[in-house]
Amino acid sequence: MLLKDAFVLDVSGEERNMVLSYGPCQFPTLGFIVERFWEIQAHEPEEFWTINCSHTSDEGTASFGWIRGHLFDYSSAIVIYEMCVQEPMATVQNVRNQEKLKYPPYPLSTLELQKRASRCCRMSSEHTMKVAEELYQAGFISYPRTETDNFSPNTDLHAIAHEQVPHPVWGSYAQRLLNPEERLWRNPSNGGHDDKAHPPIHPTKFTAGESNWSQDHHKVYELVVRHFLACCSQPAVGAETTVEIDIAGEQFNASGRVVLAKNYLDVYRYDSWGGSLLPTYTIGQQFVPTTLTLDSGVTRPPPLLAEADLLSCMDKAGIGTDATMHEHIKKLLDRCYATKDANSRFSPTNLGEALVMGYDEMGYELWKPYLRAMMEADMKAVSIGTKSKLEVLEGCLQQMKACFLDARSNKVKLLDAMGTFFARSNRPLNETQNPMEVVRPCGACNDSEMLLKRKPNGGFMVGCRSFPQCRNVVWLPGSLSEAAVTEQICPTCVPGPVYKIQFKFNRRDIPPNFDVDHLGCIGGCDDVLKELIEITRFVNHNQTTTPARGQNQTQTTSGARQGAPRQDLHTGFRSTGQFTNEHTPVVNPQARGQSQTPSGVRQGAPRQDLHPGFRPAGQFANGHTPVVNPQGFRSTHTQNSRNASDPGQVLCTTCGEACISRTANTEANRGRKFYKCQDSGCGFFAWEDELENVVPRGRGRGGRGGGRQASASAGRRGGTQGRGRRGRGRNADANGMTFVSATGDTVHGCCFACGDPSHFANACPNRGR
């Protein structure tokens, strides 16, 4: 399923050769990004109110927060605030002083290296690993791909720290760390992970900086050294004070912290730990707040995922390993599923969001981390010996097979999701374009070729290669089972070359006197193809497709917006009552259910067609004569009582809207009625008596359209023929009915079920008897 062939993706350059594929690691990773993005989009800000209080004394200022936090009901908030204002005296109810410790980090693993480099050094995980690998190859740090975050008891940590004493920046701290009198040394904490292969990342060789190092090499080496020295240090010590007060029965509190001993914070500049120093308070003390305010605010959505946050989500869900997580993130960026801004925060692209939406619509949570997490857990079970490789492999294959079959059977949902963000290219799925698919030059844009393409539903069409810039399209009959462009060129049709197409029809959809195999031309010269197209109701494409989620405009069967200009296969296939002369008013004589033309274009809209010679019965070949067509393209059995329109209504030939009637009041034309378009900027104008001279207004209505006749007489053969698919003419049946093709010619066929020439088998009343 080549989605990039089915849709016009907003990519350029080398990105056009990108690969679109599902990956059990990359899609859950993308899912985290899209899910956060959807949370932000779905967030609706809500206003809230909170009471803030502050007190200033000689020792400083303390800011007290409301224990309730905030309220979303303004009336309740203002009532409580007024109570506090009326009785503003604050009473200290509790004062807590306690020692707080801030512990140094665990020994450095690959995941922590990537997260801290992203937060502290503004480096991507992929670039961090690339630089770390180069430092490892040069012998300055240990192997950078490890899940271990605790040192073996046999590791000589003092020797590693001693190598850093000569460094001009952190060398003095390393010397203090090794001095027993400072009591700064502390064995590193155990992070609880050991891959049994490599120790935590640590420096292996001293350097004050190499001449060939980039700034990023310096940053990564410094991070590794400072992290190692910090994890061998004592925690920072602080004293925290919490004061609780009461104002009119409402509780408020304030906290302050003072750092007593920084310890590891002296070397590990990536962590900060501080706070404000509170004035001294005693229990029972009373004071009047310096400020007491009712402040409002609004809720805010969570921020976009930063790279460190994304790595944490992947680690928590068991997606990938420490050594491969950065590769999954890079693949998302390379394949244009997501983008990263200057703050290292991720947003999904239209492509990434469409893919996740498609899998979400399927109902099978292929974009969730559960499936991959189970696989990772099973592989870990194999490594520790609790499961066999064969058992895990068989279970994994069964899971993936079920997912594959489910995705394949529901691929239309993925296509609908893609259609929400991208225009369809009308290029066939599962096929690549080749020169043999070119049918003819495009007569609409004159800049590209018309290609034979397969539609998603299995049918065929001929569309312009330049879609969506050019929307010229030819819908081939749905009765086709096969179609292939040949090397034969039609000697008649222009502009050329027009290559003939080898058609194969379904036998049940065509009369018995026609062959299922036909070598035809779509240029307009093929009479057999004309009849087959008419018989198989080629022009009966009057149903609009359902818009994809997120699109408001109604789509026609060709994907073009209603009312937009469109080019069809044959010039003669025009909507009921539409003129080839765009400056002549259109009378809409249809009685029932024909508000749409077969192509879904609004009646009366300007339209360009492809080939002359194809006209429905009852339409004039003279483009300057108004046309009355009481039945249009539908067979009589499709006429019903819905959507009845005024048989005498005049439509504007410019914009297709219904005209309004007015009476002239000028001296020369006083009392004379005319029609004008409702759109003031359109400019359409026509006298009523000029229309009536050409097109009679009165006409009878027969049952289901069988008794309708047109008052105008013209056609390819010049005889008087009934207008519509059935009308009066030669070879009529007992009811005076005969079949008429799109060209106005009588169709020589009969029902192959009962032999009656008045109908075909698909409408046979004797069927099943």
TrEMBL record:
Where's the CCHC-type domain? 751-766
Residues forming the Topo IA-type catalytic domain are 1-405
Q: Which cofactor does it need?
A: Mg(2+)
Q: Name one Pfam family in it.
A: Zn_ribbon_Top1
In residue numbers, the region (Disordered) covers: 188-209, 543-647, 696-734
Task: Provide a Gene Ontology MF annotation, just one.
Answer: DNA binding
Kindly state one GO CC term assigned in the UniProt record: chromosome
Superkingdom in the source lineage: Eukaryota
Q: Which InterPro entries does the protein's record reference?
A: Topo_IA, Topo_IA_AS, Topo_IA_cen, Topo_IA_cen_sub1, Topo_IA_cen_sub2, Topo_IA_cen_sub3, Topo_IA_core_domain, Topo_IA_DNA-bd_dom
Q: What is its EC number?
A: 5.6.2.1
Catalysed reaction(s)?
ATP-independent breakage of single-stranded DNA, followed by passage and rejoining
UniProt keyword list: DNA-binding, Isomerase, Metal-binding, Topoisomerase, Zinc, Zinc-finger
The reply to whether Transmembrane helix figures as a keyword in the UniProt entry is no
Could you tell me which residue ranges the GRF-type domain spans? 652-691
Polar residues biased stretches: 543-560, 573-583, 591-600, 632-646
- Biological process (GO) annotations? DNA topological change
Would the keyword Thylakoid be found if you checked this record's keyword annotation?
no
Q: What does this protein do?
A: Introduces a single-strand break via transesterification at a target site in duplex DNA. Releases the supercoiling and torsional tension of DNA introduced during the DNA replication and transcription by transiently cleaving and rejoining one strand of the DNA duplex. The scissile phosphodiester is attacked by the catalytic tyrosine of the enzyme, resulting in the formation of a DNA-(5'-phosphotyrosyl)-enzyme intermediate and the expulsion of a 3'-OH DNA strand.
Q: Which family does it belong to?
A: Belongs to the type IA topoisomerase family.
Protein name, as recorded:
DNA topoisomerase
Q: Which species?
A: Brachypodium distachyon (Purple false brome)
